[in-house]
Amino acid sequence: MSDRPTILYALLSAALFGLSTPAAKFLLGTIDPGVLVGIFYCGAGIGTALLRRVRPKDFLYSENKLQREDIPWLAGAVLSGGVVGPLLLFLGLRLTDAATASLLLALETVATGLIAWIIFRERFNARVAFGMVLLLAGSVTLAWSGTPTIDNFLGPLAVTGACIAWGIDNNLTRKVSHANPLQIVQIKGLVAGPVNLALELSTGGSLPQPTPAVIALLVGFVGYGVSIAFFVLALRKLGSARTGAYFGIAPFVGASAAVIVLGDPVTAQLVVAGCLIGAGVWLYATEPMRE
C-alpha cells in the first residue's frame, strides 16, 4: 500500500466521523444519549456485517482474520471506544453546542499521540510537540467561558473525556489493524451497540420512534462503521499518532456542518480556536514520514 491511498483512508475516516457529530446533536432532540450510542454502533455492526457479504473482493478486503491473541486488545478498544467514549461525547453534546464540541474533538489527536509516544514508543519530535501545544491552546480557548459554572464546565469536560477514551481505543486498535477491518468494525459494533442499549434501557431509557431510529442506524453505519474501517486501514501503515493527526480534520468538518446545517453561531472564540487547532493539525499532518 502506497502512502497516498493510506492518507486518503485517514482523511475519509475523519470526514465521515466529523459529519456524525452534528448529526448526533440533531438526533439528541429525540433520542436519549445512551440509546443513541447503542443505535449508532448497532448500525455500524449490522451494516458492516452485511457489507462483508456483498462487497467486491477488493473493497476494504483483507485475508487476515482476528486471532486469539488479538482478543484482549480488541476488548479494550470496544470498552474504551465503543462504550465510554461515545457516551461521554453525547452527554457533552447536551451541554455544548455542536460546533464547539466538534472542534474540541481535536483533543483526540493529542490523546492518541501521547499514548502512542509514551506507552507504545512511536516516534516523536519537536514539530509535532508544538502542534500538540497549538491543539491544546485551541481546545482551552473553546472551553473558556469567562465565569465558570457547572454547566459550561461539564460539557467540555465530558467531550475531553471522550477524546481520551478514543485515544486509548485508537492505540489498542492499532495492535489488531493487521486483521480484516470490516471484521473488526463488525465485532465492535455488535458488542458495543447492544451493551449500550441494555445499559440505557435498564436505567429508564426508551427506544425512539422508527424514523429517527432508522436515521441513527444509517448515521452509525457511515459515520462509525465505514469511518472506523478506513481508520483501521490507515493505522496499518501510518501508526496511531500520524493517523490521529490526519483524523484531526474531523473537528473542522463537524464544526462546518454544525454552522451550515444547525445554524450554530460563528463567534470570535470559535474562529480563534479553529485557527489554533488548524495550525496544530497542519504541523502534525505535514511532518515527513519516516520508515
Concise summary:
The protein is mostly helical. Helix content is 76%, strand content 0%.
3D architecture notes:
This protein has 291 residues and is an all-alpha fold. The chain has one domain. The protein has helices at residues 3-27, 33-54, 71-93, 98-104, 107-118, 126-143, 150-174, 181-202, 210-246, 250-262, 268-285. It is globular. The model has no long low-confidence stretch (mean pLDDT 82).
What series of H and E elements makes up the topology? HHHHHHHHHHH
| Biggest sheet statistics | none
Rg value? 18 Å
> What percent strand?
under 5%
Q: How many DSSP-defined strands?
A: 0
Number of domains: 1
What is the molecular shape? Answer: globular
**What helical percentage do the residues reach?**
over 70%
Average pLDDT score? 82
Low-confidence stretches: none
Structural class: mainly alpha
Task: List the total number of helices.
Answer: 11
Distance between the termini: 13 Å
Considering the chains and any ligands shown, give keywords for the structure.
about 290 residues, mainly alpha, 11 helices, globular
Q: How would the blueprint of this fold be written?
A:
Elements: H1 3-27, H2 33-54, H3 71-93, H4 98-104, H5 107-118, H6 126-143, H7 150-174, H8 181-202, H9 210-246, H10 250-262, H11 268-285
Helix pairs in contact: 1-4, 1-9, 1-10, 2-3, 2-8, 2-9, 3-7, 3-8, 4-10, 5-6, 5-7, 5-9, 6-11, 7-9, 8-9, 9-11
